[in-house]
Amino acid sequence: MTIKDQIKSILEKAASKIFKCSEPINIQYPVDILHGDYASNIAMKLGKTMQKNPREIAEQIVKNIPKNTIIEKVEIAGPGFINFFISEKTLKSEMAKVLKEKAKYGKCNEGKKKTVIVEYSSPNIAKPLGVHHLLSTIIGQTLNNILGYVGYKTISINHIGDWGTQFGKLIYAYKKWGKKEVLEKAPIAEMLKLYVKFHDEAEKDPTLEDLGRKEFKDFEEGDKENRKLWEWFVKESLKDINKTYKKLSGIKFDFTLGESFYEDKMSELLEEGKKKKIFVEGDEGSYIAQFDDENMSPMVIQKKDGATLYSTRDMATLKYRIGRWHPEKILYVVDMAQNMYFKQLFQTAKRFPWYKDEGFHVSFGRMRMEDMQMSTRKGNIILLDQVLEEAIKRAKKIIEQKSPKLKNKDKVAGIVGVGAVKYNILSQNRSTDIVFDWNKMLSLEGNSAPYMQYTYARARSILRKAKSAKKDGKTTENKTEIAEKTSHILRAIPKFEEQLIHAARDYKPNLLSQYLYELAQKFNSFYNSVPVLTAKDPKDRLFRLKVTQSVSQILQNGLALLGVAVVEEM
Ligand code: ARG
After folding, report:
1. CB within 8 Å of 147: residues ≥ 6 apart
2. Residue 122 C-alpha to ligand 1 middle, in angstroms?
3. Atom of ligand 1 at shortest range from CA of 160
4. Is residue 487 in a domain?
C-alpha cells in the first residue's frame, strides 16, 4: 500500500467513527510543503452536507486518529483542511526500500493481475508511418509499460491496416509498372511511388479506378496471384516498419494482428447485428448503426455492394478480443481525428450482450511543429529517419561542446537524441496538441530528456567517486539548508509509486514525466548546497550517498518506463 493509501485508510477509519461518511475521501498533495505531505478537504465536504462548522468536524476527526508510526503530526489549517506530515522514520524506510528493490522499486499490485489490452501504433501497410502513428507507438508502448509495472497483465497489439480496397490499386499498379528488385530494396517508398503513379494515371483515365476495384474483388474472392502479391506487400512493408521500431528501441508487441485477421470473422458479426436489429438497412441496401444522439451520424457497417469496412473489422476485432482474453479494458491509442468514430463504435458495441464497456479510446492531439518542416508535401507523413538523425546530430553537437573528452560520443548522442524525441512527446499532456520544438527538446535545462539523463549521470558520477574520494570533508555545513533539501527528496520518494498509479489510472505518461522532473530538480538543488563527498561526518556522508543512489535509481526506473535510456557519463 502506498503511503497515500495508508493515510486515506487512517482518515476513513477516524471519520467513520463519528460520521456516516458517504463522501469519497480525496487525498491531495499540498502545493506548499509547509502544509505537510498530504492533505484532505473531507471536513469541508462534510461540513457542507451536515451544515456544520468544518473546523469543528476536522478537530473531531483528528482526535480520532490513533497513534501510529507513519504520521508525525496532523494539523488543521484554513477553513478546515487536515494536513498530514509523514514521520522521518517512514520516509527513511521508504528510501531503504528503493535501495533494496532497485530496478523493481515502484512495482505494485494496483492492477491485481487483471488483463488490459493495449492497442497502439497500428500503421497502414504499404504507406509511410504517419506522425500520428509515431505518437501512438510512443504513447502506447509507455502505457503498456506502466500498466504492466503497476500490476496489470497487459497484452499489446499492433492492429495494422492490411486490408481494404486500396490494395487493389496497388496490385494493379505493381502488375503494370512495378519491379520486384526495386520494391524489395525500399519497399514502402516504392509502394508509395506506385500509389502516386496510379492516382496520377487515374486522373487522366478514370477507368483505372474500376480496374483497381476489380483487382481487390478478385483478391477477396481467392485469386491466387493477387493473394500472393498482397502477402508479399505486407511482408515487405513490415520489414520497413520493424526497422523504424528498432530505431526507436523498446517497441514490442505481443501480437501483430492486422485487419485482415478478421476477414473470416465479420459475417457472423454482421448476422448477429442484423438479427438483433443493431444494424439496420440504410440507403440502397447498405447497413448502418443509428444513434439517439442527434450529433452522431450513423455508422456504416456494410456497403451497398456487400463489402465490409474499417468499422466492420473493428466490431469483429472487439468481439474477438473479448472472447479470447476477457480483458477488463481495451485501450485504443489512436489520434483524436477518430474521436467520433470510436464513440460510434463503442455505442454500437453496447447493444451487444457480450460487450461490457471494455473499450476506451486513449485519444491524443496533433503534433505541432514549432521550427522545422517535419512533414512531406502530404503534410501528414513523418520522415522519422530524418527526425531521429537530426536529433542525434544536434545531441552530438551539444555533447561536443559540454564534454569534449567524453568517450563513446556517438553512442551517447544516439541515446540522448532518440530519448529527446520520445521524452518530448511523453512529457506533454496527450489531450492537447503536442509541440515539437528542437530547442526545448534538446535543452539541458527544463523538462527534457537531456536534463533528466544529465541529472542521472551526475548522480552516478558522485557514486563512482565515493569509492575513491577522500572521506574527511572540511566544508562548513549549513545545517538548516541541508536538512531542508534532504527532506524535500525524502518526501518525494514515496510519490513515485503514487504518481505511477495516477498515470496508469488516467492513461497519462506526462504525470510520470512531471514527477521525475520535479525529483531531478530537487536533487540538483540538493547537490548544489549539500556536501556529499566532502561531508564532515562520515555518517552524514553515507546517508547523503544513499539519498543520491535512491534518486538515481528512481530516475532510471521511471525513464525506463518512458522508454528513455540513461548513460553513466555524458
Ligand atoms: N490503421 C488505422 C489508421 O492508420 C488506425 C487503427 C486504429 N485502431 C483501430 N482498432 N481502429 O488510421
Report:
1. 111, 116, 118, 154, 504
2. 5
3. 1
4. yes
Domain span including residue 390: 384-561
For 206-242, write each residue's pLDDT tens digit.
999 999 999 998 998 899 999 999 999 999 999 999 9
Q: Exposed, middle or buried, 167 (CB in 10 Å: 0-12/13-18/19+)?
A: buried
Asked if the structure places residue 378 within a domain, the reply is no
CA distance 303 to 284: 9
Where b means 16+ CB within 10 Å and e means fewer, 451-461 reads: bbbbbbbbbbe
Residue range 260-299, pLDDT digits in tens: 999 999 999 999 999 999 999 998 999 999 999 989 999 9
Does residue 140 lie within any of the structural domains?
Answer: yes
Q: Whose CA is nearest to atom 6 of ligand 1?
A: 122
Instruction: Compute the distance between CA of residue 352 and CA of residue 75 in angstroms, rounded to an integer.
Output: 52
pTM of the predicted structure, to 2 decimals? 0.95
DSSP state of 261: G
Residue that has been written with the C-alpha cell 530537487 in this structure: 522
The answer on 259 and 135 residing in a single domain is: yes
Last residue of a domain, one of 69, 86, 103: 86
Name the closest-CA residue to atom 11, ligand 1.
Answer: 314
Residue 405 maps to a domain: yes
Asked if 225 and 145 sit in the same domain, the reply is yes
Q: Quick one: DSSP state of residue 160?
A: -
* Statement: residue 28 has pLDDT above 90: yes
Spatial separation of the C-alpha atoms in residues 427 and 430, rounded to whole Å: 9
Phi, psi torsion values for 143, nearest 5 degrees: -60, -40
Does one domain contain both 273 and 298? yes
β-pair partners for 260 = none
Is any ligand 1 atom within 6 A of the Cβ of residue 136? no
Q: How confident is the model at residue 130 (pLDDT cuts 50, 70, 90)?
A: confident
Query: Number of folded domains in the chain?
Result: 3
Q: For the chain, what is the radius of gyration of the CA atoms?
A: 28
